[in-house]
Amino acid sequence: MASPVAAISAAVRSERQRRGLSLSELARLAGLSKATVSQLEAGTGNPGVETVWALSVALGVPFSRLVTPPRPAIRILRADEGSPTQAEESHYTATLLASCAPDAQCDIYRIHAEPGRARRSAPHLPGTVEHVVITAGRASAGPLDQAVELDVGDYVSYRGDIPHVFQALEPGTIAVFVLEQN
Question: HTH cro/C1-type domain: from which residue to which, for each copy (predicted)?
Fold first, then answer.
């Protein structure tokens, strides 16, 4: 099985070529340096969540298409398994649990977050809706100017195609995110 970086590397290269983009064009669309994209495609980069999101938006594909290997018929993912991706500027780790078929356009993530700097997200693809359920701890989530506090079992949904935020308010906060892309 390929490492997470190798899988992302191959997926980015494949999607870039499928769209007929040069490295320079993809870098420009994603707001990244050409060197960053080149290193990532060569398998020598170590991208954070923000970098992979920027590439997925620039390529017009769900985040999951860049980080998920092909699915087996039955898949079990234990709580301590998966390939977590650490945010670059906050105590926030996203583990992709499942991605839907390409025509369904949804991804499911388990988020582990600690109090501290909020995880601010740039807008995702147009039409994206985020669904969040808190399974441990407490958090604040939603659009930057309308984030709400959530306790265990609470659910919120909001537009993911505008700037939004997630911030743990207690140690050991865990949430399940579903990103629905229409």
Answer: 12-66
> What Cα–Cα distance (Å) separates residue 99 from each residue in 104, 106, 181?
9, 6, 11
Q: Is 72 contained in some domain?
A: no
Q: Which residues contact 79 (CB under 8 A, 6 or more apart)?
A: none
Note whether 117 and 91 are same-domain residues: yes
Same domain, yes or no: 167 and 103: yes
CB–CB of 92/49 below 8 Å? yes
What's the pLDDT tens digit per position in 99-150?
765 666 788 899 999 999 999 999 988 888 899 999 999 999 999 999 999 9
21 in a domain, yes or no? Answer: yes
Secondary structure of the chain: what % helix, strand, coil (to 5)? 25, 30, 40
| pTM of this prediction exceeds 0.90 | no
What is the domain range of residue 50?
Answer: 4-67
